[in-house]
Amino acid sequence: MFNKFLSNLQQLNPTTLSELDSVSLQNRIDSKYILNEKEMVNLLPCLIENYKILTIKDERVFSYENNYFDTSDYLFFKDHHNGYANRIKVRSRRYVESDLCFFEIKKKEKVNRTNKHRESLVSLVSDINEEKRELIQSFTRKELIDLQLILKNNFKRITLVNNEFTERVTIDFKIHFADETNEVNFEGITVVEIKQSKSSQASPLVSFLKESNTREQSFSKYIFGVISLKPEIKKNNFLPILKNINKIKN
C-alpha cells in the first residue's frame, strides 16, 4: 500500500533545495499526525493539487541519520514526560545523500511553537565537547554536566512545500532506533509534520485531515526511541499516545 503512495509522488511538481530554503521556518508552529499506509494513499489528491515535492537529481525520498543526546538520568526525556515548558532536545543530524551534517538544539517555547538552533558540522558527532555543552547550557537553567549519546535514529523522509511557499510538510517513514545493546523498527506508521510560521495560516493539508476526522498527534522520535529501547523507563504520561499509535498501526 505504501509503495502505491510512493509511486504516485511522481505526480507532484518538483521544487529545488534552494527554493525550499526560503521556507526554513526555524521558529515555527508544528502540527503532527500519525497515519497508516491506507491513510497516506488517501492524502494523495490533496498533496498533488496543493504541494510541490523536494527533488534532487531525480530523487524524492531521502535518508536521515540522527544522534540524540541527554544526561545520564534522561533529563530532557523527563522534562518532556512531565510536560515542562521550555524543554529542549539535542541532536546531531546527517543528510545521507548530500553528506551534510548539523548540530541542532530544539527548544519548545510554547505548546506548539518550536525554536531551533542549527550549526553546520564536518561530520556527525557522537559526543559533546565543552564548547557544545556550554552552548546547550545557554538554553536551560538546569545544570548540565554529563551529556552523552543516548540513541541513534535513522529514517526516510519526503519533504513538501505548499504552492505559495509558506508551509513545509515532512513525511517520515521506516523509522529505526538503536543504542549499544538494542534496536527497534517502527513499522506500519508514517509521521506527517506540518510546519507553519503561525497557527492562523490556512493549510490545505490540515483542512483535509480535519475533514477526514484525523486528529493531531504528539510524536517525538527521541521520546519514542527511548521508550522503545528502555522499557523500564517511566512513561505513564505517554501511555495514551502509545495506545493510539498501536491502534493506528493495526
Instruction: Report the strand count.
Output: 11
- Gyration radius from CA atoms, angstroms: 18 Å
Secondary-structure-derived class? alpha+beta
Element pattern in H and E = HEHEHEEHEEEHEEEEHHH
Cα shape: globular
For the record, give the distance between the C-alpha atoms at the N and C termini, rounded to a whole number.
14 Å
Could you describe the largest sheet, including whether it forms a barrel? 8 strands, antiparallel, barrel
Q: What value does the average pLDDT take?
A: 90
Helix content: 25-40%
Oligomer category: single chain
Give structural notes:
With 250 residues, this protein is an alpha+beta fold. The chain is 27% helix and 36% strand. It is built from 8 helices and 11 strands. The chain has helices at residues 2-8, 17-20, 37-50, 75-81, 130-137, 204-211, 221-229, 239-249; strands spanning 13-15, 27-35, 51-54, 62-70, 88-95, 100-108, 113-121, 148-162, 167-178, 183-186, 190-196. An 8-stranded antiparallel beta barrel has the order 2-7-6-5-4-8-9-11, surrounded by 4 helices. It is globular.
Characterize this entry briefly.
Helices cover 27% and strands 36% of the residues. It is an alpha+beta fold and 250 residues long. It has an eight-stranded antiparallel β-barrel with strand order 2-7-6-5-4-8-9-11, surrounded by four helices.
